[in-house]
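Standup notes
- DV: blocked on the single-chain target, sequence here:
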Amino acid sequence: MWILGLTGNIASGKSTVLRLFSKYFSVIDSDQIVKKLYENSKIQKQILQKFGFTSKPKLADLIFSNKTARKQLEQIVHPLVFKEIQKQLQTFRKQKKVFLVVVDVPLLFETKFEKKCTWTLVVASTRKLQIQRLQKQGYSKQEALQRMQAQKKQEWKLNQTDFVVWNTKSKKVLATEVNKWISFFIGLYYVC
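- DV (later): unblocked, structure below
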């Protein structure tokens, strides 16, 4: 079974690309895993003890403005996220028809998860488009920039990855680009 590690910076279109891949391949969505973890009372208790609150908007504001707080939250959440990813991968390995699993990991390279992947793919966009997308989600330009600056630079990720999908045009163009990769991986499967 092959594993494609999918990543990209905030507002790059990573979730859209994952949805497109999910039409043909099994997927693991780290954002959904984190969302479920935040609903877990034990996790909420740990977060409350560490930060004094559990409000997701307040946590987001804190972690995007405070590197120490971000690391503390990651220490609570990341081991559980990766445990769940491994559990889901084991389930897929048991299914003989699954030949490729796309795993969406926002901090793929930062957490060294790429070492567990057959290949990696970065969804990339321009800074201007990322800001525009974040503003459409209700963030001010300053908040958008703060969130973007809390992440590794896109260029760093591009230097680490095997493949890149640029999301700088319409959703139709993005779908066409992703479909080329879908065809590539299906073709590769039949060749191997």
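- Follow-up: The chain has a mean pLDDT of 96.
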